[in-house]
Write a structure and sequence with these properties.
2 domains; UDP-N-acetylmuramoyl-L-alanine:D-glutamate ligase; Protein-Tyrosine Phosphatase, Chain A; 14 helices; nine-stranded mixed beta sheet
């Protein structure tokens, strides 16, 4: 019934409910993330500085990188991200499957962060949350944009509406860090002059430009302003994420040497280009990639590292009740680069799970049961991929990342991608 009502109630009406909830939550929890410093109500109240990270891809990793830099600089930090929450030393998994919490839960989280003395809160801020006013009452000191590519058109309907929703964050933020390599980056520039930093891996005129780039499965190396950086995170897109974090550091006057130490100390981000050690001597990679752009970036990162004569085996599906138009595009991209594709089930919610695979299949150009397999059970699909893998092969398992459940209707079935892979590796003997 709840699902049915959600479908028939206009989004505009639901957004008014979210706004009312946000206003009440702010009042109940004392506006924990509102800047009163320039407000006549109370100029004596000192609050945390909030850093909001938005974008189609890269939000979670960028959030983690920013937080680690702040901690290395001696700051007490709160994090609200797709994969985890943190308030100072206390950390726990995000089991909600929401990028940004409801207004009530978010204000409660921020109130606790203030109470425990956090100086900064780094919050993944989704286009849904911005459109639905869930972040009303939060004063963003810095807004970060990783990129905007096709996603969530089931909700926003058009790319222009999607961009506009994300731009709400930048219309209210004091300062911004923006990816210069994305389409129309100036659209998100904040109003105050000289308060926007642009970063790039392509344009040397950017405020932060990465050069002397070296890529490897075990990590990446690059320089910014003659400062050398090493990440234990593979992929060119992780250099972009690091640049975004460095932009925040620069706006906060954090020395790049401290930022370099922080970035180098990060062993990895769960479910984001996560390598799974194995005795097969294959490169088994878990990643959250759920969009055509994320697929393109993933393949752009791994293809230069592929050993001639080896295979790329890609296991993936698509989330239910989301943009159906992206599904065949994902199948087409995977067909262009992978040697073997295995389509499988992935968070169908209330949608027909077989129909989701049918939609992806429309873009697949490989021969069925030879270099393309359709295995509905995700565990069996992963087992098949691992059984086919040989020394030096690359096995990509995408779409779930570090999530701990699979959404089937109203149920949340326990699911841990890495654990399943490790169990199936053991079953192979």
């Amino acid at each position: 019934m709840k699902h049915f009502l959600s479908k028939i109630i206009p989004q505009s009406l639901k957004n008014q409910y979210h706004l009312m909830q946000a206003v009440i939550a702010c009042m109940c929890f004392g506006f924990p993330a509102y800047d009163f410093q320039h407000h006549p109500i109370d100029k004596t109240r000192k609050k945390m500085q909030v850093i909001g990270v938005t974008g189609t891809n890269g939000k979670t990793t960028t959030t983690q990188l920013i937080a680690r830099i702040l901690e290395r600089a001696g700051k007490k930090v709160a994090i609200a991200s797709t994969i985890n929450f943190q308030i100072g030393e206390k950390k726990w998994v995000n089991a909600s499957k929401l990028t940004t919490l409801s207004a009530w839960e978010l204000q409660k989280f921020l109130r606790e962060a203030v109470r425990t003395g956090c100086e900064y809160a780094v919050i993944e801020t989704s286009s849904h949350a911005l459109d639905q006013h869930r972040v009303w009452g939060i004063s963003y000191a810095i807004a970060v944009m990783t990129n905007v590519t096709r996603e969530h058109l089931d909700y926003h309907k058009t790319m222009s509406a999607y961009r506009f929703a994300k731009s709400r964050l930048f219309r209210s933020a004091k300062r911004a860090v923006i990816n210069l390599d994305m389409e129309n980056p100036d659209y998100f520039r904040v109003r105050e002059e000289k308060q926007t930093l642009f970063y790039s891996t392509k344009d040397p005129n950017a405020h932060l430009f990465a050069e002397h780039i070296e890529l490897d499965f075990k990590g990446t190396d690059f320089t910014v302003d003659e400062e050398h950086f090493h990440l234990h995170l593979p992929g060119l897109f992780n250099i972009e994420n690091a640049l975004a974090a460095l932009g925040v550091a620069q706006l906060l006057d954090i020395d790049f040497s401290l930022a370099r130490e922080a970035l180098e100390s990060i062993a990895g981000v769960p479910g984001r280009m996560e390598l799974v050690p194995n005795e097969k001597k294959a490169d088994i990679i878990i990643d959250y990639a759920v969009t055509p752009d994320a697929f393109e970036k993933l393949y752009a990162s791994i293809l230069p590292l592929k050993i001639p004569g080896t295979k790329i085996i890609h296991v993936f599906g698509a989330c239910g009740e989301r943009d159906r138009g992206k599904r065949p595009k994902m199948g087409e991209i995977a067909s262009s680069y992978a040697d073997i594709i295995i389509l499988t089930n992935e968070d169908p919610y209330h949608e027909d799970a077989q129909q989701i695979i049918d939609d992806i299949e429309k873009g697949v150009t490989k021969k069925k049961d030879k270099d393309y397999f359709r295995i509905f059970d995700r565990r069996e699909a992963i087992h098949k991929a691992l059984a086919l893998a040989e020394i030096g092969d690359i096995v990509l398992v995408t779409g779930k990342g570090a999530e701990k459940t699979m959404a089937i209707g109203d149920r949340r079935i326990p699911w841990d991608e890495r654990q399943v892979i490790e169990e199936e590796l053991a079953n192979l003997g």
